Amino acid sequence: MPANTPKPIIARLNRDIVAALNAPEVKKRLRDLSVDAQSSSPEQAADLLRSEIKRWGEVMSRAKIAQQ
């Protein structure tokens, strides 16, 4: 999502994504693909993204992989 996206748009997208993930046909398709999709709040998603960037940045540093 682009930086500075208005909070009402983020909230609506989150509601729509959560609704889609809870739709029976989507749940079945994801299960058939062995995907364990979990919904979260926008804040939880941002926290996860920050922690993953930090985690994999450290892995890249230790492995001497250049950032692109």
Describe this structure in words.
- The protein is mainly alpha-helical and 68 residues long.
- The chain has one domain (7-62).
- 68% of the residues lie in helices and 0% in strands.
- It has helices at residues 7-22, 24-32, 42-62.
- The radius of gyration is 16 Å and the shape is flat.
- The mean pLDDT is 94.
SSE arrangement, N to C: HHH
* Biggest beta sheet attributes: none
Number of helices: 3
For the residues shown, what is the average pLDDT?
94
Strand content of the residues, in percent?
A: under 5%
Helical content (DSSP H or I, runs of 4+): 55-70%
Poorly predicted sequence stretches spanning 5 or more consecutive residues: none
Structural class: mainly alpha
Taken from the alpha-carbon principal axes, the silhouette is flat
- How many domains in all? 1
Q: What separation lies between the terminal Cα atoms?
A: 20 Å
**Rg estimate, integer Å:** 16 Å
What's the total number of strands? 0
